[in-house]
Input
Amino acid sequence: MEERLEEILDHAIENGRGMTALGKTATYIPELGHVNKEYLGVCVCTGDGTYYESGDSDIRFTIQSISKVISLAVALERCGFQKTFDRVGMEPSGDSFDSLVRLDLASDHPSNPMINSGAIAVASHLSCEISFERMLAFTRKLCMDDEIILDEKVYHSEMGHISRNKAIAYLLESKGILENGVEESLDLYVRMCSLCVTARSLAGFGLILASDGINPLTGERLLSSKVVQTVKSIMLTCGMYDGSGRFAVEVGVPSKSGVGGGILSVVDKRMGIGIFGPALDSKGNSIAGQYVLRELSDKMRLHMFADHVPEY
Ligand code: GLN
Output
């Protein structure tokens, strides 16, 4: 007999708990180092808007790099495709998320908007067009979660340890890629990284991306089809940094990770999945979270190239 969705989630969390000991919380932003690395939670939001959860799915944590998806989507909507992709590429970099080597030596623009250099370039552009308050309001809509707020402690902790991202921003400025000043660009970038979400909020956002940018509960279109298609493609190829290739093979679902321990996954036309597991692997991706997603992908045949799709 097939397992019920609730049971599949419970088993994946139970099995994944053993993996948290193998990872570490991010410590280069001191406030993130204080989080309990044993947390592990998952939430699935299916096409009719029903949420299924297991483990620590309602603990708040900072969205970090998953905000890069939101910023890219808003930049494409407001600044257009050409202006956005004039400044940032759409190729996987194969380097770590905070690398600046390739940008300095081999390229005149960041490889893609999912690494820090690309996201700072996007934030620079966005900061000329839209306020942080409006970005926050739109994030709440996309995640179907009105309780998302700025985590002031994480924001100040990151701003106090910003040297590397500042180096990236100055390098971008030297290449004429920044649209706004270094301070303004970094401020919006770090504020967006410091928004507090849960696995449940990410599952809601995932469902909206899985539903072509429409909130299936209200019928409201939040993002255009073309933007959603572009964002999901870039998540698939670049969303897990230099772990994106293996993740695409093993899980096969467009996803985006953050060093707060979150993963956002989009099972097209079927469901959104949110993960929280702050113990990270060496590439900055949730170690147990990736395990949970592998198990869900296998059991529910979620891989985009799976041969048959059962009812979940
Ligand atoms: N705020 C983090 C940084 O800029 C985000 C990185 C991440 O989540 N990979 O370094």
